Amino acid sequence: MKDRVIITQGTYVASAVKKDQYPEGNLPEIVFIGRSNVGKSSLINSLTRVNNLARVSSQPGKTQTINFFEVGVKIEEAEERKAFYLVDLPGYGYAKTGKEKRKIWSKFIEEYLLHSPRLSFVCQLIDSRHEPMASDVEMFNWLVDNGLPVLIIATKVDKIGKNERAKNIAAIKRKLGIKEISVLPYSSLKNEGRSDLLDVIGDSLLE
């Protein structure tokens, strides 16, 4: 079946740790955030189908800047092509960095999330194999408390069976404290969930 939303290009634009380093222009921004090693870079590469657009590392905490990628899309019901910034934020939770450095990180991430005028929504990635950790719940609550729209994506679903998947997704909803929240299952390896995520992105670009 043909995808309704097709990504036509994905290019790296900028890395930033402060406002004056953000790229110029008025493109909407869709943000990806998650614990270190949740599979964020793999998901970005799977979504855009651009190999190594986001660098995949086996060492948690490798992304230490806010990385902006310009992504072009063709949406079935739109005459003109659209574009957005895919924004990759540093992983929270475990990282081989001292407390002071983590404080600086969290400050510039908070600054970006609270003050970017172009932010459309945040994709928070949670590893489907485990219950959300305290840092996941804390991040989710912080995003909601600050009025930021959040889409929860359960990563690495290819690594668990169907029954376990249903059970673990229910556990994610329970732990986040919102039963009716929708959780999008995603496998970067098999591109499962890709069309669903593209549909959500397409809808937000048409608003």
Automatic annotation (TrEMBL):
PROSITE patterns: G_ENGB (PS51706)
Listed cofactors: Mg(2+)
Keyword terms of this UniProt record: Cell cycle, Cell division, GTP-binding, Magnesium, Metal-binding, Nucleotide-binding, Septation
Source superkingdom: Bacteria
Transmembrane helix among keywords: no
GO molecular function annotation: GTP binding; metal ion binding
Gene3D superfamilies: P-loop containing nucleotide triphosphate hydrolases
Biological process according to GO: division septum assembly
One Pfam short name: MMR_HSR1
UniProt name for this protein: Probable GTP-binding protein EngB
Organism encoding this protein: Selenomonas ruminantium
Gene (name only): engB
